[in-house]
Amino acid sequence: MATRPFPIDARMTAIALAYRNPDVALIADQVLPLTPTAAEFKWQKYDLAQGFSVPDLKVGRKSYPTEVEFTATEQTDRVVDYALDDFIPNEDIEADNQGVDPRGTAVAYQTHLLNLAREIRAAALVFNTNSYAVGNQVALSAGSQWNESGADPVAAISDALDVPIYRPNIAVFGQAAWTKTRRHPKLVQAIKGTAQGAGLVSRQEFADFFELSDVYVGAGFVNSAKKGQTAATSRVWGKHAAFIYRDRAAGPQAGVTFGFTAQWGGRTAGSIADEKRGYNGGEIVRVGERVKEVVCATDLGYWFQNAVA
Length: 309
Fold this sequence. Notes:
By secondary structure, the chain is an alpha+beta fold. It has eight helices and 14 strands. The chain has one domain (10-46, 74-305): Alpha-Beta Complex (phage-related protein like fold), CATH 3.90.1690.
């Protein structure tokens, strides 16, 4: 068996895979699904015209059928290593902590930070001008933003869903954008079928009304202050909204999807003894993963920048 500088511990790895902070809604795994790959991975980008241009299919009695050729541009990328260490003194490990496992606690907190970091990367990629074709995005301004009674989010969203070549099947909102959008009078009236404009629509009602599979709302917070300074928290996903086509089954040979997350191996956790630190030494607990978030089809989404003020 190969020797590992950081042996993989099955129990700690199980915690790393299962842990989610219940107080924060993180949606990166749903918006950019994990896809197993090698460390260096490739994906094929086919020309849009190839899938929508129909050649002459008629064949004469002695002629050859029209010959077609499918070409693609090979995109090469590589996963990025992300990891965190936490040193635990032996006296903490050996002490009677009334059922609290310091190793497990360390893995839980480290896992949460890895999740939050991935959430930040996903939000920065999904809510990004470069992730959408030029005609598949709009920056809303005063008068058209969905927190204003004079705006019409029903018409704006309906029209936007017809723009991508594949109709989006999921919606992605920042919490601030969702809170104000779901109570817009025109949206409430249209979905509830009433003249009363006050109220709230649920995610399921919104999804059913616009014929979407899911509505994901990023509710996570991140602290932007430097270490030692007073915490300055802000929403990870901002005040934007996007509608994208997601195919969890898309792979190298078939299917198309707005984006994915390449993952080499799974998230792991392990520990190694460190006898040089502290009076009695201790253990370094490490949790890590190898992933890369990718937007591979900018034509398959529509982005509303600054959906609300």
